Amino acid sequence: MTTTTLAVLVPLLPALGALAGLLLGRRAPGFVRPLAVLPTLTAGVLAVLVAVRQGGGAPVDAVRELTPTGSVPIELALHIDGFAALVAILVGLVATCVQLYSTGYLRDDPRYPSYAAIVSLFTSAMLLVVYSGDLMVLLVGWEIMGICSYFLVGHYWETPEARAASLKAFLVTKLGDVPFLIGLFALATETGSFRITRILGAVADGGLDHPTLIALLLLAGVAGKSAQFPLHTWLPDAMAGPTPVSALIHAATMVAAGVYFIARLLPVFTASRAALIVLALMAAVTMAGSALAALAQDDIKRVLAYSTIGQLGYMTGALAVGERGAAVFHLLAHGAFKALLFLAAGVIIHAAGTNSLAAMSRMPGLKSRVPDAYWTMTVALLALAALPPFSGFFSKEAVLGAAEHAATGHEGPVPGAAGWIVLVAGLFTALLTAAYATRLWLLTFHSPLARAAEEPGPLAEAAAGQEAAAEEARAHGHGKQPAVMNLVLWILAIPSLAFGLAVGTIPDWFDGHSLNPTLTTSVLGTGLALVGGLVTYGTWRHTTAMALRVPLGAVAVNRQEGAAAVEAEAITAHEPAYGDIAAAPDPADPGRLLLGPLHRHAVSGFHLDAVYSALFVRPVQLAAKVVRFLDREVVESYVRAAAVLPRWFGAAVRRAQTGNVQTYLSALFAGSAVLALAVVVLAHLNAGS
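Structure tokens predicted for NADH-quinone oxidoreductase subunit L:
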């Protein structure tokens, strides 16, 4: 079987699995899980075979014209180079893990068949984007992912949060897709083709007349899809969907598509220095702002969502300094450890019955209840914090090294200002990333109450009572986690730990640029990460000590009441959606002290949703009310008048029809007299003139 045939089967198999799953979901429910897992797994295996055959060498190209268009042709084209082959492996791995995980996580969900089918279609669309050699075919996969995300985020449509989040995700991404589509048409018009290879050839020959305009139009679509400032607000709200969906969207599909698109067409963006500056600024604001917001969130999934936004900022920052190898390297490493983080968070939520870190910090013994999630999440958080030898260290240092190279006088199309912007923002974000990763780990697994239970005294008695209540709740609650969920965690822990060791071979699959960490950025980045983690730990110890100075009776009563409420929710919860438990703030939360006055702003994402509401949502709603008023009170008035006036005229005429002959003759005589009088008057007037 040829490489081209294998490549065609990679996106085709999940699509066929989705179709079969939808058709057989109700008629043959026993086939639903095999149809969800096997096609995706097979596609992942075939993606590995395609990568082996491609071998990081010459790209694999195949093309067939659909139909003559009379202008710019649209072609079914494949273009598989080194990083396309590796990204396809990542998509296949994460999608397979998500499908396996979902068989346990959603085992009692009545809508699992449709969910699994949409996940398969989502996977197929992303693989189509990865392998496509024609921008119009790529756009098909791009839009299918947007539709699938709407259905998956709104899976729990009974909850208002899920309905609002799915609609918001769809509208915000479509807002970016409009200029994106215009940019694609402009690019094809100037280069004469939608084929990626021909576009890159035309750009190399100086065939772009308006590179800045085209690049900025395309960036709008990328900002929406990859959740970059200012179109990133949909991603934290998308946590209302099932946790496996969050892992899929954040790790390998949807948000990765925008970064991949820029990497694929990077020469288009490097043709405009202004576009690179804009991209660098967008990446810097995204990195720093999302890290500050993550440090203030109470929902564990929202912490990870803002973390994803920040890590995508690193990728776009690498692209802003012209280094697509570092961007895709971080995309691959991030995909593994971010999928692990979300799926481990799903295990924790499944066991705790809540998304709230404040509630989890009141649950002693959570670490012992989910040991697999504890150890694997620890690995993933270390990779997120970019500490050696975990994969995140090598990929993030590749980004920072590229920024340093651009900032310190590298000659080329990349402006030095872009390098400095990305370097400074990246180092600052490294400090904050380690801080919120440490905070999440401490609040989830090392509650102050659990520590106090180790010492004799009233707090120990309170902790013992809470643990007894928790045990009783677990007896009636979720019980032990399905084995398949824990298995997936350990599968993803392997690349999270070891993928960075491939840094020496990765450049052979891209442009041949070295991605080895540089000394300066390695020392600065790792040092700042250690400072962020240690400061957060010290702050947590301080806030814990302050919290434990509260009168013991009050602590015992408040914590027992809080634990009872949380565990009561855990008993009845099936799949806790975002915001289902309103836990009181944890007094031991170090994020409040670290952020200080910024905390209340960071919690709400710096009020960007409120700004959008004031600038766009409310004016549109006001305009809709005006249109509704005009439609009902003005337009409908004419419609109603068109019916009322004939009715009144008919009623008046009907009153005149009495059936009395004398009345008719009198009216006839009166009318004749009036006409005769009118004739005489008119004749007199004419004679006088």
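Residues 272-606 form one domain.
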